[in-house]
Q: What sequence folds into this?
């Protein structure tokens, strides 16, 4: 791991704690959550629940972003 060369940009205790805990989660979890939300969205759409389908379908992008963040924390660490 590389050491942070700029001490003005250190992580706070809350961010460090969150990164330590999320690094324990498997990266596949976020991918499956995104795919699951798309599947549930499709099922809701087919049932005519358009507003619910849009709401659940929008969860896919945040899950994928969280998975990317999780992967970066595992590879680069929190500092």
A:
């Amino acid at each position: 791991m590389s050491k942070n060369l700029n001490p003005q940009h250190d992580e706070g205790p809350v961010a460090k704690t969150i990164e330590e805990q999320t690094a324990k989660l498997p990266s596949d979890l976020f991918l499956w959550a995104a795919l699951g939300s798309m599947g549930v969205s499709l099922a809701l759409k087919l049932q005519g629940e358009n507003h619910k389908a849009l709401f659940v379908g929008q969860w896919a992008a945040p899950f994928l972003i969280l998975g990317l963040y999780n992967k970066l924390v595992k590879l680069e660490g929190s500092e």
Remarks:
- The chain has a mean pLDDT of 85.
- Residues 26-79 form one domain.
